[in-house]
User: Which sequence fits this backbone?
């Protein structure tokens, strides 16, 4: 630091201040440049995807979104089965994961005996850390054969006589397919939802809960009428983050979805998702239109996840603002 | 944090320098493509590396991928079971040559049925793949197999989801056997299958058939043999039920006029012959006639020259049929005729 | 009357609490099943060979040596590039841009990138690196992984720096320290443990990523540390081996899966240890 001489303060002080000013400006510029890198990655991603997708959109127009064909030889591509698969597997996964995740969070905050709380919580979070390819191979080698041999025939028989459900649960029992992929996906996103829900439940002011208990509410009534409404936007935000992850998930799904570019009536039928299609076909896609169509569905995936994640961000930020987490 | 950072930097710098040094010595050849010949290429590569120290980095991604990668010049050679038509070769500046002959066999996973027990013919096979026959105890299958107990089990077909020469050979056969198939689906490296699971590569189909009860798929014979997946006997052009063996693949290729087929373009499905296997095929290598890096292409051709001379036994151990010596001569001649002299060993 | 309603409320309470216990059992049950399969299958395939031999052709003996080293190299490169960038960007957001519009946009974009599908990053790097270089390479793979590291590090750095009390900064400033020096010597040091946590989490994240490597570093059967050539990686090898029919390769895939899971779990535990050291400071 500057050595300020009392006899002649001005020159060394000014020089020091100038030096500091320059180094400050440099450092600030450096950090700003790093922040711009983030923006550049994002912009580059969109630009590359858009540029690559353009030929496909130009050739197929809006039909690209509504046609269910995928023929690399005649070069006819329609994204409908991939979009359908992505949306349905994620929706079904959320259908299971959200209630179960909230249930786990309720268990952790209310019912779990105190000494077990940390281990169980950590155990659930460890699930979140397991790489998705592990879910994929577990699904293919352990879950699917068991499902095919012991569970699917039972379900197919059971629903075989009920009019509407008959087509939804129709065979043949492949083991892998839309149902299995959705199930594996739901186990995968479960820990995210329960982690967010638990964090949000813990921010609920104890006074509110005790007031309700004081009125004679049962534990469930407190959860349902006090905690959940308070935690609503947090839980919804966290769920949407989990949805964003589910939409883009590749490895957990590729192994067990069955890779059929078709929209099957049955949940047990094979299907495909956008990321599974890209993973399976990109390295060997022959022909500019084929490559462009693959990039086009990638762009569609990016737009879908962007919308979901942006909505989640807005929700979570409003929650943080309310809780005073970030100074506005 | 600073000392840790410095140490980390040092470690990575060391790795970068070391890899820069090894880069100078990197001599591996890279190829990509058909999964059909992958088992034998892998065995050849291992033996070749033991002998010469040069490795063959082969990515088994399907014929479609092989064609795409060589056209994009991201590999030294491409491999495809579907031979490119002369026009396409000319347009891309490529030339092709065959390496081995193999057979595509239907495989099944039915409780109690062992390899070679089930007999099918082309028409029934096409009907199954079209989705018109849905259960193993269908009358048409029973007719061909009067003495086997067939369970009432749904047939789960498994097909190739990637661009595949094996798929081309198989659908080519189905198109010849069934006008309905030819019209509705056709023959190509990638077709729109009416139903069933899609799997990547011969490996994926084999894997799915193994994992899924009641399934029917099609793989190159080495995959069925290496993984003990029950194969099916087929009734061939002469009406005889044949098993897939090196002998029956060879019988299918016996009458092939390699010398007069332009660019070695031959299709070996549904060939006449008492012992001929109906779904045989050759597999091809694609290289540039005028390569950018002649020395790398020379490495590739040296490898295959070695394989022609020394790889026959390894090929036969996996039930691939090595090319007849006269064809090998034709191939070597075509190298001298079509490819830049600097790249020919 | 009230008795009846009371009984109903008690019943409903018991039912839903039982359901939430069931939910927890469901969650832990699957975790146990998955980790159990992983341990049983993976440890059954573990041996010294896994670490000493390269990936084999089907039917031959082999291990995962080149894949392990490849993953380590590419992860190290990714962290080397991504960490400084991420820390600097996070510093900008926390120190200079707390209320600015530019910072708001960066924060928003960063959070999107955090959860964006990693396969799209792979596509981006393919177009950026592979097509222009003309071949697949470890550099492209590392670049893709770096783009996954950066958002994680930015987020955690920003959060940790915001937790540093302003009094520390003000004290340093009062002594006449220039701002950049304050940040580097006071704020960073105070947030050190938290930033390390972020880096560990980022490493844990990229250890299991397969999709971005599919079309960037491709894969390599042989030992290669050449950055300018395709490089093997553990997740890609698991993907290839698991998709095929060969039983011996399946076993290697399980061994690889166990290795990755152990690495990720240890990093997560380490991150927690750092986290608790930070909060206990």
Assistant:
């Amino acid at each position: 630091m500057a050595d300020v001489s009392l006899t002649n303060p001005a020159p060394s002080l000014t020089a020091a201040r100038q030096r500091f000013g320059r180094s400050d400006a440099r450092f600030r510029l450096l950090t700003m440049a790093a922040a711009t890198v983030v923006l550049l990655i994002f912009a580059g991603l969109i630009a590359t995807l858009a540029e690559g997708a353009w030929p496909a959109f130009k050739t197929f127009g809006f039909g690209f979104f509504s046609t269910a064909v995928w023929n690399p030889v005649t070069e006819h591509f329609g994204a409908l089965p991939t979009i359908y698969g992505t949306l349905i597997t994620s929706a079904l996964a959320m259908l299971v994961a959200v209630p179960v995740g909230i249930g786990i969070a309720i268990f952790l905050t209310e019912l779990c005996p105190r000494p077990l709380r940390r281990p169980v919580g950590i155990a659930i979070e460890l699930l979140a850390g397991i790489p998705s390819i592990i879910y994929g191979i577990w699904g293919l080698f352990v879950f699917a054969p068991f499902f095919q041999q012991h569970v699917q025939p039972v379900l197919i028989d059971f629903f075989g006589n009920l009019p509407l459900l008959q087509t939804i649960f129709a065979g043949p029992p492949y083991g892998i397919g839309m149902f299995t992929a959705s199930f594996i996906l739901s186990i995968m996103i479960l820990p995210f939802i329960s982690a967010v829900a638990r964090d949000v439940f813990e921010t609920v002011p104890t006074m509110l809960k005790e007031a309700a208990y004081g009125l004679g509410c049962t534990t469930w009534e407190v959860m349902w009428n006090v905690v959940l409404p308070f935690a609503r936007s947090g839980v919804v935000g966290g769920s949407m983050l989990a949805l964003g992850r589910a939409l883009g998930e590749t490895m957990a799904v590729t192994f067990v979805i069955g890779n059929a570019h078709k929209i099957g009536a049955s949940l047990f039928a094979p299907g495909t998702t956008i990321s599974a299609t890209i993973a399976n076909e990109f390295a060997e896609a022959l022909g500019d239109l084929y490559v462009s169509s693959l990039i086009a569905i990638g762009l569609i995936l990016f737009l879908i996840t962007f919308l979901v994640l942006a909505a989640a961000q807005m929700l979570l930020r409003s929650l943080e603002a309310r809780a005073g987490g970030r100074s506005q | 944090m600073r000392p840790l950072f410095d140490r980390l930097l040092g470690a990575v710098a060391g790795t970068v320098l070391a890899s820069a040094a090894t880069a100078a010595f990197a001599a591996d050849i890279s190829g990509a493509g058909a999964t059909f010949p992958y088992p034998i290429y892998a065995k050849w590569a291992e033996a070749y590396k033991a002998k010469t120290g040069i490795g063959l980095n082969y990515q088994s991604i399907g014929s479609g991928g092989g064609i795409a990668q060589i056209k994009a010049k991201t590999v030294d050679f491409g491999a495809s079971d579907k031979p490119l038509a002369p026009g396409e070769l000319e347009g891309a500046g490529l030339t092709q040559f065959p390496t081995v002959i193999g057979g595509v066999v239907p495989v099944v996973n039915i409780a109690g049925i062992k390899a070679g027990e089930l007999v099918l013919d082309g028409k029934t096979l096409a009907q199954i793949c079209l989705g018109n026959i849905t259960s193993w105890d269908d009358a048409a299958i029973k007719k061909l197999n009067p003495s086997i107990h067939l369970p009432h089990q749904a047939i789960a077909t498994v097909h190739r989801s990637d661009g595949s020469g094996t798929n081309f050979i198989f659908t080519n056969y189905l198109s010849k056997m069934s006008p309905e198939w030819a019209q509705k689906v056709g023959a190509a490296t990638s077709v729109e299958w009416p139903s069933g699971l899609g799997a990547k590569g011969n490996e994926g189909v084999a894997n799915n058939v193994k994992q899924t009860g009641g399934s029917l798929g099609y793989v190159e014979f080495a995959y069925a043999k290496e993984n003990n997946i029950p194969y099916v006997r087929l009734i061939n052009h002469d009406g005889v039920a044949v098993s897939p063996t090196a002998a029956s693949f060879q019988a299918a290729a016996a009458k092939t006029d390699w010398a007069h087929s332009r660019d070695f373009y031959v299709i070996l499905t549904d060939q006449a012959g008492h012992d001929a296997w109906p779904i045989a095929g050759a597999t091809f290598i694609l290289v540039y006639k005028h390569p950018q890096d002649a020395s790398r292409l020379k490495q590739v051709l040296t490898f295959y020259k070695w394989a022609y001379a020394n790889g026959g036994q390894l090929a036969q151990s996996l039930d691939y049929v090595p090319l007849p010596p006269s064809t090998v001569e034709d191939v070597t001649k075509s190298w001298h005729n079509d490819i830049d002299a600097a790249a020919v060993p | 009357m009230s008795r009846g309603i009371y009984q109903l409320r008690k019943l409903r309470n018991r039912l839903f609490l039982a359901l939430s216990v069931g939910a927890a059992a469901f969650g832990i049950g699957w975790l146990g099943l998955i980790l159990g399969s992983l341990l049983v299958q993976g440890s059954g395939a573990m041996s010294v060979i896994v670490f000493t031999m390269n990936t084999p052709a089907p039917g031959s003996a082999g291990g995962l040596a080149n894949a392990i080293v490849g993953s380590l190299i590419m992860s190290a490169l990714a962290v080397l590039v991504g960490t400084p960038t991420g820390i600097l960007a996070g510093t900008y957001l926390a120190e200079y841009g707390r209320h600015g519009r530019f910072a708001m946009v960066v924060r928003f974009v960063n959070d999107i990138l955090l959860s964006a599908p990693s396969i799209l990053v792979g596509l981006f790097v393919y177009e950026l690196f592979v097509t222009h270089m003309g071949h697949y390479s470890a550099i492209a793979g590392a670049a893709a992984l770096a783009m996954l590291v950066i958002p994680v590090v930015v987020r955690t750095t920003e959060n940790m720096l915001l937790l540093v009390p302003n009094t520390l900064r003000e004290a340093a400033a009062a002594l006449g320290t220039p701002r950049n020096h304050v940040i580097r010597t006071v704020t960073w040091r105070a947030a050190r443990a938290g930033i390390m946590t972020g880096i560990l989490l980022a490493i844990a994240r990229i250890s299991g990523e397969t999709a971005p490597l599919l079309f960037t570093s491709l894969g390599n059967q042989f030992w290669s540390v050449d950055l300018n050539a395709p490089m093997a990686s553990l997740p890609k090898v698991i993907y290839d081996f698991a998709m095929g029919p060969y039983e011996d390769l399946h076993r290697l895939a399980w061994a690889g899966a166990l290795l990755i899971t152990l690495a990720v779990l240890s990093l997560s535990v380490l991150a927690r240890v750092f986290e608790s050291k930070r909060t206990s400071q």
Remarks:
- Chain B touches chain C at residues 1, 8-9, 11-12, 15-16, 18-20, 22-23, 26, 28, 30, 39, 42-43, 45-46, 49, 55, 57-59, 73-74, 199-201, 203-204, 206-207, 209-210, 223, 226-227, 229 (CB under 8 Å).
